[in-house]
């Protein structure tokens, strides 16, 4: 037997130190900190991905997701990857080569939708607004008339700008133009009202690590009947095996056919995060996010700092304060991290150097965090 | 403010019970149970995905992976998904439409490689062996001569059959035929010798939840210089945004450019799992897996049960005992789960109903587990 054991090369072997991470307060664009009960669930003892107890948990996760998304969609599941994987899954499954896909681009994530759709060989068209603004129903209608898309993709809560896209009446327009409505709810789900069925949204995705306050690594998506019909009518195989919903549907559906090994412990954590939402209730949760956002906005005003986004379209879960003239935004963020263990993010793309991105998401949307942040920010502004 | 809070539909809201999972001993084809230190690391306090402390951890994970894989490959990273995502990532990046990809198919995962490669529009060719057998260098040489592939894909440890593909001399053949060698090491990495550089493997992937004994949800891949050159020479964009290594490389490389939010806590757990391998040392670990597998094989022999795979090519981390005549294999597995909380799996594909799949992987490769399993199996055989 011993002759089957070769010598190992030791050149990359080293003794890593015991894991020790700093106690950060995550007030950037995500991840947010998670609730202590989510942490406990995460480290619960593991079972197999086809264990009867896990199958039961999968059903619970699906039903809790329907509540959080306010949808009756049967096909509502978490994808085994981060939010970007769920984002890509929606396009990979619904786009066939040559389809016209119209994207509302008013920030980084609209751009990414264009990039992803093009990789599935969609004919991508764009309507655009400056970063921080939103689309009016008239602008969307004009886009639908002009481009006659198979899918309209919008970002509900633009994490790069802090703008919240109003959704009333857009679903009806999409039906009128026989177009599927795809919605990015990454930074809105569980923090601000997302009413998928009322808004007639056909396809949506989100992340776990924003207003749901679960670690990153699992991310939900949902397909309504019109999207499922489109999936069933595909002429070509989905050009992505891992994210192929015709295969995944058999694992999450009645067949329970093995597809890939689900991230067991991430599903535990996700269930607990969703369970906390159901306990609190969506209305209370939405109100809490608004109240704490308002506290932040008022406090920023007191410091003489204005917000980039007009209050009518301002996202409660992510605020983009304008960096005052003469201040180095990155230096302030660095100061907050080094001196107070607080993470806030700098702007990106069109807003690089111009704004900060401050998240009050899920568990982190609490008055004590706002108070600490404002006080620390005041110190940082005078120190850098 | 209150008028911004709509009424929520309560129809899918329910009070889920406190999370409570049964204490399973996972002796199937994976996931395996993880070490108590991995569990602790998993629930360590979270930081942001661009936090300096996380960037430091990423470097450590990469270096530990190089040791475990016995490679100097600079591009060695964990993918933010389960093993199937890393598997797909290798093909998505290295295949361009029309490329000839030759796959050795002697089990379920060879079949999957064919399916995945076809989705990236490869011209897929196959060499085949019955499930449980392996390819000889002569058979592989004949395949290379006949098909002149750009990539040869092999499964080192076939989780569906329990066969271990010998790798000596295959890398040299691939260089001779100017072909990249891609290797599935999902059920071998960290359990049986995997010597990527010595074997001249260009591309490899694995999972976290087998012999590395980390929860599923993160999975490594590595590209050698020849694979990186191929990636750099691509004429088309990678047809998968989430798994595009030209983008991911910027996050894991010196630039640290945001791509997607890494699964922070899964990276903590993965680092600890790799750290445990480095502490134990690969040679000791390989020997431990052989010793406990031998214990299992001898014990099965004592029960009159033979193994499906010839001992010369038998995988220590996954054994496929033949279900004796007149015994219902699924009923035995069910009995073990219900009465002893032990998970073993039934066969699949060509081996459905014919074998069990018993894993002794990573933390679970221990004498006490073998002893318990053999004793429980004996009881199950007389009970069903």
Could you explain how this protein is built, in words?
The structure is a homodimer of 384-residue chains. Chain A is an alpha/beta fold and 384 residues long. Chain A has two domains: 25-31 and 281-383, Aspartate Aminotransferase, domain 1, CATH 3.90.1150.10; 36-278, Aspartate Aminotransferase, domain 2, CATH 3.40.640.10. Chain A has 13 helices and 14 strands. In chain A, strands 2-10-9-8-5-3-4 form a seven-stranded mixed beta sheet, with helices on both faces. In chain A, strands 11-14-13 form a three-stranded antiparallel beta sheet, covered by helices on one side. The N and C termini of chain A lie far apart (65 Å).
Give the count of structural domains of chain A: 2
Instruction: Give the terminus-to-terminus CA distance of chain A.
Output: 65 Å
Q: What spatial order of strands do you see in the largest sheet of chain A?
A: 2-10-9-8-5-3-4
Oligomeric form: homodimer
Question: What's the helix count of chain A?
Answer: 13
Q: What does the average pLDDT of chain A come to?
A: 96
The helix fraction of chain A, in percent, is: 40-55%
CATH class of the largest domain in chain A: Alpha Beta
Largest interface: A-B, 103 and 104 residues
Radius of gyration of chain A in whole Å, from Cα?
A: 22 Å
Order of helices and strands of chain A: EHHEHEHEHEEEHEHEEHHHHEHEEEH
Low-confidence stretches of chain A: none
Overall 3D form of chain A = globular
Q: Which architecture of the largest domain in chain A does the CATH hierarchy give at level 2?
A: 3-Layer(aba) Sandwich
CATH superfamily of the largest domain in chain A: Type I PLP-dependent aspartate aminotransferase-like (Major domain)
Q: What's the total count of β strands of chain A?
A: 14
